[in-house]
From TrEMBL:
Pfam families: PepSY_TM. The keyword Transmembrane helix applies. This is Putative iron-regulated membrane protein. Keywords: Membrane, Transmembrane, Transmembrane helix. InterPro entries: PepSY-ass_TM (IPR005625). The keyword Transmembrane applies. PANTHER family: IRON-REGULATED INNER MEMBRANE PROTEIN-RELATED. The chain crosses the membrane at residues 12-32, 134-156, 177-204, 321-345.
Length: 357
């Protein structure tokens, strides 16, 4: 049994461990995307005295800017995370940035912003269309449920009678044990963070399966809210955009892609990075002018509420700065485990060859 588990751990480490290492490195860098892009693009993303720009001004500017070239607009993003400006994605692929108060044009998307967008695509899909996300998602779940668990099983079998030894790193062991010690210590100390990151990462590929499983937490009683009472109210796009919500801030507007003339409005509880639960709301303005709530944290099913937390947990934001630091460090661990694991395997293979010869 032990030999079979060792083989599973070995071959998964040399296969999906490689992909997990790539995902970890790209994910670790992306954790600090808001701060890095803001630092590199102050003219595009930062606004002097932003705290003095009120919500009504931001909404008014957003609506005004999109009406100037409405037929050419694809999406509009209002201030969020470290971005204090308004950005508009046009159907020709260009993205322009504007001041949220003066509406002055600030510039076009920079190379550093494009770099992080590409980085995120690589993190989620390896840059391979259609099947890339399934390669990442499947490898992530194999890493979570088989590679990490088999590693823990072998650690437990070796150190269950002397746990302190299993948590201790010998800095001057014999050369052949050096890589084993690193592999052992990093593996056990980061076991739980890596399990959580890998499990939540799989959600972005298999979200339908996750939500179906999470449905066991749903209550049979439907929650009724004031939002649902507004579903039959008729709005123009202007009214929908300019109305302020004491609970949520308008984050983005997605313009119709076809003749359906359906607009999607996405809201966020806090415009800027905050520790705690992620609370969102999504509404739809259809071609009849009816503004209806699609989802809202306030009255959503428990399965949707839980699913909404996978992103902040995955990237560490749910625990604030310390959570993001932990995710950043944890993202570097898979490649350490890959290298040290390969060294251990290589060393063992050489010893076996010497015995045979």
């Amino acid at each position: 049994m032990h030999k079979i588990i060792w083989k599973i751990h070995l071959w998964l480490g040399l296969s999906c461990g490689v992909i997990a290492s790539f995902s970890g490195l790209t994910g670790a860098l992306y954790v600090w995307q808001p701060e890095i892009t803001s630092l590199l693009n102050p003219k595009l993303l930062k606004v002097k005295d932003f705290s003095k720009v009120n919500e009504k001004t931001i909404l008014s500017s957003a609506y005004f800017l999109t009406t100037q070239n409405e037929g050419e607009v694809s999406k509009i993003f209002l201030p969020y995370r470290e971005q204090q400006t308004i950005s508009i994605n046009y159907k020709d692929g260009k993205t322009f940035y504007y001041h949220p108060k003066t509406r002055v044009f600030l510039g076009e998307k920079s190379e550093s912003i494009q770099f992080f967008e590409t980085l995120l695509k690589l993190h989620r899909t390896l840059g391979i269309s259609k099947i890339g996300k399934y390669i990442i998602g499947t490898s992530t779940l194999l890493f979570c449920f088989f590679l990490l668990t088999t590693g823990f099983y072998m650690w437990w079998k070796a150190y269950k009678n002397n746990l302190s030894k299993g948590f201790t790193m010998k800095w001057k062991p014999k050369k052949k044990r050096f890589y084993f010690n690193i592999h052992k210590v990093f593996g056990i100390y980061f076991l739980l963070p890596l399990l959580v990151i890998a499990f939540t990462g799989g959600y972005f590929t298999y979200y339908k399966t996750y939500k179906s499983a999470l449905s066991i937490f749903n209550s049979s009683d439907k929650i009724v809210s004031d939002e649902e009472a507004k579903q039959e109210k008729i709005f123009s796009l202007k009214e929908a955009v300019l109305q302020t919500d004491g609970k949520y801030a308008l984050r983005a507007i997605y313009y119709p892609k076809d003749s359906s003339r359906v607009y999607k409005l996405r809201y966020i509880k806090d415009r800027f990075i905050q520790a705690g639960f992620r609370r969102t709301k999504e509404m739809e303005l259809n071609k009849q002018g009816k503004l209806r709530t699609i989802s809202s944290f306030d009255f959503d099913l428990n399965s949707n509420r839980i699913a909404a937390q996978f992103y902040p947990v995955h990237i560490g934001e749910i625990a604030g700065v310390l959570g993001r630091v932990l995710v950043f460090i944890s993202g570097l661990v898979p490649i350490i485990l890959l290298i040290t694991g390969f060294k251990v395997y290589s060393s063992k293979t050489k010893r076996l060859k010497k015995v045979v010869n």
